[in-house]
């Protein structure tokens, strides 16, 4: 079972993906995390990603798809993939369908987290992430340990993302509305999309996702 966690920036996709991979036979494929890792390596490709990411713009499809193709090819056999933050355009969705089909894989469920803009702004404003393991925190709803170390990996690198500022968040939301929302229609037409309320305690949202996945888990 491959699945997509869908929703606007800050909807809780990464947070829920981390819970799902702990509890189900799944691995997370977050294009944002892959791009941040490439950027941290200092490579030319990472610098190209950064031009778009720091402006809140979508990275061009061809660059994203190259990255996804490599990540899918190296995904552990026998585990389903949770696509997090991908696909973000209809051409990306079409391309990944073709890519997976060549490998005998298929996206069988798309779970869309619905969160209003006010909550998104509040969530992204308070988001903190561990640079080492990607664990996601929120200063009020899920605070990082007081000693500044990450509870997930014990590292000390919990930071605020540089694109989590008001100007860039506004742009990212505009990009979501302009290009990404249509991806949900693409999957709805295939009859595999389910939308659910993304507001509530982490475990409540998790249970809704589990229910939406039904027997597929
Ligand atoms: P996305 O991956 O969709 O951009 P994240 O998982 O990074 O979103 O979550 C964005 C912020 O919202 C983080 O600070 C996270 O701790 C917080 N968050 C996630 N889920 C919830 C929730 N159910 N209630 C309150 N805050 C949440
Ligand atoms: P995220 O970590 O999902 O919040 O993504 C952070 C940034 O990475 C986005 O604002 C985009 O610049 C870029 N990005 C991540 N995933 C994609 C994608 N699938 N397509 C295009 N750009 C992406």
Describe the fold and architecture.
- Helix content is 47%, strand content 17%.
- Helix 2 packs across helix 3 and helix 4 (61-73) packs parallel to helix 5 (90-102).
- The N and C termini lie close together (8 Å).
- It is built from 8 helices and 8 strands.
- It has a 5-stranded parallel sheet with strand order 2-3-1-4-8, with helices on both faces. A 3-stranded antiparallel sheet has the order 6-5-7.
- It has helices at residues 13-23, 31-40, 44-53, 61-73, 90-102, 117-125, 166-189, 202-213; strands at residues 2-6, 26-30, 80-84, 107-114, 127-130, 136-138, 158-159, 193-197.
- The longest helix has 24 residues, at 166-189.
- Adenosine-5'-diphosphate binds next to helix 1, strand 6 and helix 8.
- Residues 9, 31-32, 35, 52-53, 56-59, 64, 85-86, 88, 92, 172 line the site of adenosine monophosphate.
List the helices and strands and how they pair.
Layout: E1 2-6, H1 13-23, E2 26-30, H2 31-40, H3 44-53, H4 61-73, E3 80-84, H5 90-102, E4 107-114, H6 117-125, E5 127-130, E6 136-138, E7 158-159, H7 166-189, E8 193-197, H8 202-213
Parallel strand pairs: 1-3, 1-4, 2-3, 4-8
Antiparallel strand pairs: 5-6, 5-7
This protein binds adenosine-5'-diphosphate and adenosine monophosphate.
Largest sheet: 5 strands, parallel
Number of helices: 8
| Helix and strand element order | EHEHHHEHEHEEEHEH
The rough form would be described as globular
**Percentage of residues in strands:** 15-25%
How many E-type strands?
8
List of distinct ligands in this structure? adenosine-5'-diphosphate, adenosine monophosphate
Determine the structural class based on helices, strands and strand pairing.
alpha/beta
Overall mean pLDDT stands at 95
Give the low-pLDDT segments: none
The Cα radius of gyration reads 16 Å
Sheet with most strands: strand arrangement:
2-3-1-4-8
Terminal CA distance reads: 8 Å
Query: How much helix, percentage-wise, in residues?
Result: 40-55%
